[in-house]
């Protein structure tokens, strides 16, 4: 990264946002990067009157509130981590637009998750979902209702595609940086064998499991040579990927997943597994930009 790289955290004063702020501050300090606190007060709508108030008046009030929230956030970080360089700004753009713009020069964008119900996956305005899907940098989504323990592992999900490299690079790097154990997880039952082979040539589940074990072993061996200090365990299960990773997230300090999955359409900017983790995982979720998504 260039010398201008920063860690950007988007906040709105809510509890999830404060959890994201604290997480981003610790990450930035560990990376020796400055932290930028971003508050966006714009609305997507351009209507001139809303509920009896002019939009300009509402924006002025929102900007004042945003500045107060920003000052409290910078003070909070400065008191906890005085060695960290922290700055902030209030943007007149809507939150998603402001964070996507910031992602172009950020090493990482961090946002909070409000812990919405399962219907949240259908809400197009979800900031965490939109930023995870479209940001140019990696994105971490942080929940406010659980803090990981000191020995909590980093969990990374892989699917056997060329996109695994980005996720493994990030996961091994984070585990090494935090001296945390790493769990490399692979689920293989989501691939249907029906129609892939004729009845005589179809492999048995035992053969599929062996192939999955070998895939994970090759990946771990290759990356372990680069990160010899990282303690690695593997989980290979006949399970749906999202369900397996959600289970592992219950005790994880961080879950790493690629922005695309094996089953995604080429035009989709975030895979179904990443989308479910962003909304439902108990642990912070790092969505890594794959080469396809970055292009």
Provide structural commentary.
This protein is of the alpha/beta class. It folds into two domains: 6-143, HUPs (Rossmann fold); 154-294, Rossmann fold, CATH 3.40.50.12370. The protein is 40% helix and 20% strand. The protein has nine helices and twelve strands. It has helices at 15-31, 55-80, 95-103, 127-134, 164-178, 205-224, 241-249, 272-280, 291-294; strands at residues 6-10, 35-40, 49-50, 53-54, 86-91, 106-113, 139-143, 154-157, 182-187, 232-237, 254-258, 285-288. The strands form two sheets. The chain has a ten-stranded mixed sheet, with helices on both faces. The protein has a two-stranded antiparallel sheet with strand order 3-4. The longest helix has 26 residues, at 55-80. It is elongated.
- Proportion of beta-strand residues: 15-25%
- How many helices? The count is 9
Q: State the total count of DSSP E strands.
A: 12
**CATH architect. name of the largest domain:** 3-Layer(aba) Sandwich
- What CATH first level of the largest domain would be assigned? Alpha Beta
Order of helices and strands: EHEEEHEHEHEEHEHEHEHEH
> Can you summarize the main beta sheet?
10 strands, mixed
Distance between the termini: 17 Å
Low-confidence stretches: 115-125, 192-197, 261-269
What structural class is derived from the secondary structure elements? Answer: alpha/beta
**CATH topology call of the largest domain:** Rossmann fold
Provide tags for this entry.
295 residues; alpha/beta; Rossmann fold; 2 domains; 10-stranded mixed sheet; two-stranded antiparallel sheet; 12 strands; 40% helix
